[in-house]
Specification:
The chain is α+β, with helices and mostly antiparallel strands. It is built from six helices and 15 strands. It folds into two domains: 144 residues, no CATH class; 81 residues, PH-domain like, CATH 2.30.29. A five-stranded mixed β-barrel has the order 1-3-4-8-5. The chain has a four-stranded antiparallel sheet with strand order 9-10-11-12. A three-stranded antiparallel sheet has the order 13-14-15, with helices on one face. The radius of gyration is 22 Å and the shape is elongated.
């Protein structure tokens, strides 16, 4: 497993449905393509995995054919701070508990399997959940697309956007709620914010955009049979374009456009009537 703070997508092959409780938190042993690692989560947040396991309790790797992917953040046993200080995330007693749970559970390895990784644990990651710090972990991404190729591209894009966020906002990586408070502009209805000339969309299509690198911005109104939505298009050099869908909240969209034009120097025109 990668080290502290990294977000990765894992393909779940199996799960031990019996949780291990320690210090008020629940851990489930999850088997994935790189081995077996404890996952810190509540049952309600991984109910689909538990239901799939319950339906096929005796099968070997019963979740493999379901193509279930989780976006998770990796926490190591120990992290080092400044001046040689250390923070222990997995104490010895918890390592022993992981090992006992593994030995009595259903995920024991075959000869060619990777054994238990007790030096790391996983947590589910979701941008909105990390912002609100509710402690409620959710699936960030569940592959439900027919085409494996399109599903793979979406996982890769999401991972790249998380990495871009961690790079551009390192001080908010572990405390995203603070970013809502510190943002230069924030609209919780549209789920967009601007901070330090960077546009962040935190709806289901999570994006981080450097406003000083864009060539052009346009806002469009899209009409369907009985509904209206809005979209904002960012054009970069070459053929790179990023499209973000916005809710039908015209006043909020107008405020966003006014802010971008006034504070970020964009020249967005609105070729439609409100």
């Amino acid at each position: 497993m990668n080290d502290a703070g990294t977000s990765v997508a894992i393909r779940v092959l199996d799960i031990d449905s019996e949780p291990l409780t320690y210090d008020g938190k629940e851990y489930y042993l999850v088997k994935h393509e790189k081995g077996v690692t404890p996952l810190q989560a509540q049952a309600k947040d991984i109910q689909q995995l538990l239901d799939l396991k319950k339906a096929n309790p005796n099968d070997w790797e019963p979740l493999k054919q379901e193509n279930v992917y989780l976006n998770v953040r990796v926490t190591p046993e120990v992290t080092k701070g400044r001046r040689g200080s250390k923070t222990v995330h997995i104490p010895a007693v918890l390592i022993e508990a992981f090992t006992r749970q593994y030995r009595k559970g259903t995920l024991l390895p075959t000869e060619d399997s990777v054994p238990l990784d007790f030096l790391h644990y996983l947590t589910l990651t979701s941008f909105i959940n990390r912002l609100l710090e509710t402690g409620v972990t959710l699936f960030v991404f569940l592959l439900a697309l027919v085409s494996f190729y399109s599903a793979y591209r979406r996982v890769r894009t999401l991972k790249e956007e998380y990495e871009a966020f961690d790079k551009e906002f390192p001080r908010y990586t572990q405390n995203m709620k603070a970013l809502l408070m510190d943002a230069d502009f924030n609209d919780p209805k549209l789920k967009v914010l601007v901070k330090d000339h960077k546009f962040v969309c935190y709806n289901k299509d999570f994006r981080v955009i450097k406003l000083r690198e864009i060539r052009n911005v346009e806002v469009r109104r899209q009409k369907a049979k009985s509904s209206v939505t809005y979209a904002i298009d960012f054009a970069f050099g070459g053929n790179k374009n990023v499209n973000i869908q916005l809710k039908n909240r015209p006043e909020n969209v107008r405020q966003l456009v006014d802010y971008l034009n006034e504070k970020e120097g964009t020249k967005i025109s609105l070729p439609f009537q409100w």
